[in-house]
């Protein structure tokens, strides 16, 4: 089972981005052979830019033909790891991206569907994280910045070019020492462990749980 796992470069004045730090750590631990993973991993850093981020992601799908794609981004202020359920066809940037672009009320894909659901087993993933004492919940909003742009772009690629792919998006909190001491945080090692559990849960399941698992609205 081949998995593409992506994080983002730093943005908004931060020196680091825990999404990429955690993705890189997952890849390093697999290379060191700490435990059999049950999947083959391709890790990649995406630019925090509207447009180019999805183009880079598409190149990864073309080059590696994965079975599963999990994109990861930072959501400052969230207290836990939050698999996303739905991506909306809207770019509405509060701040410019790393290339200076700041789209307001524009579609991710002109003429595309209003929204896409991800195809990760998000409730099962959250249950696995909670069982491992990792704070987690299902989220129903990925925002309207580059994270949602990539999530929607991924699911549009799945719908139009790569139907064999199961894909989705996961938001992670700030990391300690990142410079946001008043906000909740999660150490990068725990975030990396969460991403590995999400991948393992996705690889092991073809359907999600039907449960009343807590959700973040």
What does this structure look like?
It is a single chain. The protein is of the alpha/beta class and 217 residues long. It has five helices and nine strands, in the order βαβαββββαβαβαβ. A five-stranded mixed sheet has the order 2-1-3-8-4, sandwiched between helices. Strands 5-6 form a two-stranded antiparallel ribbon. A two-stranded parallel ribbon has the order 7-9. β1 (2-8), α1 (18-31) and β2 (40-46) form a beta-alpha-beta unit. α3 (122-131) crosses α5 (188-204). The protein starts with a strand and ends with a strand.
What is the compact description of this entry?
The protein is α/β, with parallel strands linked by helices and 217 residues long. The chain is built from five helices and nine strands. β1 (2-8), α1 (18-31) and β2 form a beta-alpha-beta unit.
């Amino acid at each position: 089972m081949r998995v593409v796992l992506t994080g983002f470069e730093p943005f908004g004045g931060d020196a680091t981005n825990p999404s990429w730090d955690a993705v890189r750590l997952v890849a390093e631990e697999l290379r060191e052979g700490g435990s059999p993973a049950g999947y083959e991993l391709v890790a990649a850093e995406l630019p925090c830019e509207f447009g180019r981020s999805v183009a880079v992601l598409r190149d990864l799908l073309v080059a590696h033909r994965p079975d599963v794609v999990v994109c990861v981004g930072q959501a400052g202020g969230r207290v836990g790891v939050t698999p996303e359920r739905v991506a909306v066809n809207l770019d509405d940037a509060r701040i410019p991206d790393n290339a200076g672009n700041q789209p307001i009320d524009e579609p991710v894909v002109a003429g595309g569907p209003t929204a896409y659901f991800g195809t990760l087993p998000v409730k099962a993933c959250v249950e696995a994280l909670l069982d491992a004492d990792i704070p987690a919940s299902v989220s129903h909003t990925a925002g309207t910045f580059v994270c949602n742009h990539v999530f929607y772009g991924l699911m549009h690629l799945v719908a139009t070019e790569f139907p064999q792919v199961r894909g989705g998006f996961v938001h992670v909190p700030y990391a300690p020492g990142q410079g946001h001491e008043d906000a909740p945080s999660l150490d990068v090692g725990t975030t990396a462990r969460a991403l590995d559990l999400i991948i393992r849960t996705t690889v092991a399941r073809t359907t999600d749980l039907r449960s009343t698992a807590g959700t973040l609205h």
